[in-house]
Structure formats: C-alpha cells, structure tokens
Amino acid sequence: MSFLFRSIRGPNRTLLRTLGRRQFSDLAEVKAKRNYADNASEYSTVLTSIVSRRRYFLLRDVYDDMMLDGVQPTRDTFEALIMGTMRGARLQDAFFFRDEMKAMGLVPEVALYNFLISTCGKCKNCVLAIQILEEMKRYDVKPNEQTYVCLLNACAAAGRLDQALAIVRDMTAAGAALNKFCYAGLIIAHMNNKPRADDIATKIIELAEQSKGWSSVEESGITGNAMLGISEEELYNLPAAEFVHRRFFLYRQFTVYHVAFHACADLGNVEAIETLLEMLKKDGKTPDTFITMQCMRCYLRAGDIDRAVQIFEDYLKEGKPPAIELYATLVEGAMIGYTPRGMQLAQETLVNMTSRNFFLNTKIGSDLLLAAAGEKTGGYTNANYIWDLMQTRNVVPSLPAVEAYYNGLKEREIPADDPRLLLVTRTLDNLRSRFGAGPPRARSF
Question: From CA 77, how far away is CA 91, in angstroms rounded?
C-alpha cells in the first residue's frame, strides 16, 4: 500500500526483507503489523491526523489503501476527504472523491457541495463553481444561504466582478438579505477584477459603510460546519481565515473591516487606511491585532517605515498580547526595496523577536526567507540569519524559499565546499526529489 510503504520503508526495514527473514511463514501476522487501519473508523482517525498536519497530498493514498483493504468508505469518510481537499486547495482530488462518492450511490449533501464550491474558489475557478450549483439542482439538493455566499466568493476570488454582482442581484430579488460575508466578497471581487478601477479605494470604503446596515442572528459566524472546525471565514476564503481560532487576535464582528483593511494594505493606500480607521473610531471600536497588522503593511508598502514602527511600538506599549505575525510583518515590510535602513531594521526586529521567545515556523520562516533571498547586493545577512534561525529548530523551509536562497548564494562568491552552501544544496535536492514534479504519489502495491 502506497501510504504504508512510504512510512515503513527504510534501509533496514523493508517489507521484502521482513518477509524474506520470515520465509513467508506468517503472512497474516505480517499484514497485521504493517496495516495502520483496519476499518472505516480507524481510517477516519488517519484522515483527521493527515488534515491536522496539513499533509493533504496523502489523502488520495489513504483512500487507495482503503480500497485495497476492502474497507467501504462511509459518507463521513467522504466528508473528511472533501473537507481536506478544500483546505489543501486540491481541486482535482476534490472532484475525484465527488465522483467516487456518486459511483457508490451516495449523493453529496449540501454541506459537501459547499466544500466543493469553496475549493473552486481557492483555486480561482468560478466556472466549475457554477457547474456545481447546476449539479445540485439536477440532484434536487437545495442550496442554502452558504451555497450562494460560497459561489459569490468563488467568483470574487476569480476576479469575476460581473458574476459576483449578478449573484447579489439574484439573492436580493429572492428576498435574501446581504450579510457581512457578501459585502466582504464584493470587496474582494473589486480587488481581483482586472483592470482595477481607478476609484477602487472609494468602492471599498463605500462597501464597508454599506455593510453596517446588515443584521444577523448568527453574529459570531458559527455555523453547522463549526463541529468540523471550519469557520465561515475559511469556507469563504477570507483573508483572516487562518486567524479565526487565535485567541485575542481578531474580533469576528469586524469581518468587513478585516477584508477592507487587507485590501487597502495591498493597495498601499494610506489615505484609505486612515479613512477606515476613522470609521472604526466613530463606531466606538479599536483595531484588533489583524487590523493593526494591515495598517503596518500599508505604511511599509507606501515606504513610511517610521509610521509602521510607531504603530508596532504603540501596540506593544498598550499591553496587548504580542504576536509573531506583527514581528514578521515588520521584518518583511522593512525589506521592501532592500534599503540599508530597512535591512538593518529587519535584522534588529528578528533579534528582538527571538529574544522574546518567538520562533519561526515553516510558513512564516519560508515567507521571510523568500523575501530576504531577493537581496541582490549587500552581505545577505538577513537571509543567512533567517536560515540559521530555522535550522536551529530543525524547521525546513518551503521549496520556493530554499530555491530562492540557493540562487542568491550562488550569485555570490562562495566556495563550492562552503558548509552553508552544501547544506542548502542538500536540502534543495531533497525537496526537489519530494515535490519537484508536484506532490509525490508512490506506486500502489
């Protein structure tokens, strides 16, 4: 079995050697030892573990092993598989599991169709998302409010402003009120629409203002998917989705503000950010950590390092819970343009961050290494320091980050036998062998 064989294969532990030493004397015992699951319940536990570890590329392997073992998948099994593909943005796998489910006589329920539409949104494929809605109608699966909001945000992610507006018109014509997630989707649609309108910042502010008129019983954003650990922010692919479960990081009632601040930060529009801050103040609200991070991003993109540093320091002085993302935002933004002052600030922030016992994880470390590796002149100090911080804690950066760092080292006069270069080369070779042609799929036995 493919998943199993990768887990047990080693220089002294191959199944063939085991069978050779035992001379095939007890195949049943060997099979019992090598199997990691024997029934649907145990396979569900394996799937939960894989999704929690974000190893989404293994979902197909586990499913293949279920088939080889003769274990019949249940509706809950397919729910876990499709939910995992949604989180991993693995569109092809999602539709494979949908087809397998239907082949076994199981028609997906509305929640699973919503997951499929959400996956289309993550992959910026609104054409397939619309086809999913049509399929629901053919199978007499009644769409719910989440279905249309998923579709709206899928169109928004693909930059199809016209289709997003059409969905809104259909919803209002049917008597449905727009909620905060609809307004958030419209902001994203305006941002992703190409070419962007010259007055896009004005549009964002107008939508943020209009959203204040909505009301909902479910103010918190908790839905039937909450039992699966899926928030509506994640279902609709909103920028703050990864922080929803972070305590004290954001106020969930600020959904539209989060999307608006994030959009204005991407634009580097300081005037729009300050207008949003004034709107927030008039509402009697104060910025949460996510909004603070977007304000820093905006000023850094606009080249105003001093203002970004002031926001960062004021946040810490107020006694609010510090977060590694704020340090990372300052580091990454300071390196824009690779100016001497910015690179020095980035290094000092990294040192300060480490001294406060904040350590780089794979995602943040990879993002910072990728940014630092773009430095064409100078001593490559920040890139080397970020690499060393990750190596100290045995954290392996992503393939794009290691490739960028390797290319930066090769552009400098470094001896071929330099220990750092040798280690980076070895790490890069390992990552390429694993992911070079896409997520690996070993043979099934």
Answer: 18
Residues in the chain: 445
Calculated CA dihedral for residues 33, 36, 38, 44, nearest 10 degrees:
170
The rounded Cα 168 to chain-centroid distance in angstroms is 26
* Residue 260 · residue 276 · CB < 8 Å: yes
Give pTM, 2 decimals: 0.85
63-75 exposure pattern, b = at least 16 Cβ within 10 A, e = fewer:
bbbbeeeebebee
Region for residue 285 given its phi and psi (left: phi exceeds 0; alpha: psi -120 to 50; beta: otherwise): beta
Structure tokens at 131: 């086809």
- What DSSP string describes 232-259? HHHHTT-TTGGGTTSTTT--GGGHHHHH
User: In whole angstroms, what is the distance from residue 353 CA to residue 323 CA?
Assistant: 10
Contact 61, 3 (CB under 8 A): yes
3-state secondary structure of 438: strand
DSSP secondary structure letter of residue 107: -
Q: 252 and 221 in contact (C-beta within 8 Å)? A: yes
Contact 203, 191 (CB under 8 A): no
Q: Is residue 128 a contact partner of residue 91, using CB atoms and an 8 Å limit?
A: yes
CA diameter of the chain: 79
Integer Cα distance of 346 and 327 in angstroms: 9
Quick one: pLDDT band at residue 263, thresholds 50, 70, 90?
very high
pLDDT per residue as tens digits for the range 81-135 = 999 999 999 999 999 999 999 999 998 999 999 999 999 999 999 999 999 999 9
Structural contact between residues 19 and 30, judged by C-beta atoms closer than 8 angstroms: yes
